[in-house]
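=== How it folds ===
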Amino acid sequence: MYIYLVPSPIPDALAAYPHLTLRSEEHVRLAIESAERLMNIESDDNVAAYEAFDAAGSWTGGGYAVLNNIPVTEDGRNDFEERFKNRARKVEDEPGFVGIRVLRPLKDDTYVVLTLWQSEEHFKGWQESQAYSHAHRNRSTSEGLTAQKPTMFPRSSYVTTYTIE
């Protein structure tokens, strides 16, 4: 499965693909989910392209999207992906959870953990839950990837949030 983040408005040729309209204060992006690679749009510098290597839940039905953007070096990709493939999978049981896509970048070094929620309040509830604490328990310890392999993250990660229209 492939995910493309495309600046709005969506080109007519892509309108048939299932997509979400993501709105932030700064811009509107369209997130397209496709079973096959869309090589015709990957070459566009304005399009972010990803392959989902882990997914659960639905692509539709949410009102809030959170993208955790995590730069990873080429040498760190295997360790990073292995950690996510073996994640606790607690988020799927949280109230208001709609879906998750863990995305491998096709054009740059920044992975994206995209979660979809019924609302911003549901996402904040997840952040305050014991399940969240459990899922992120090793983050700042010697068992966390940041401590084990600090050079695998060339820059700080950052979060972007959107309402889904």
The beta strands are 2-7, 19-23, 28-34, 48-57, 64-71, 97-105, 110-117, 158-164. The chain has a mean pLDDT of 88. DSSP finds five helices and eight strands in the chain. The two ends are 22 Å apart (CA to CA).
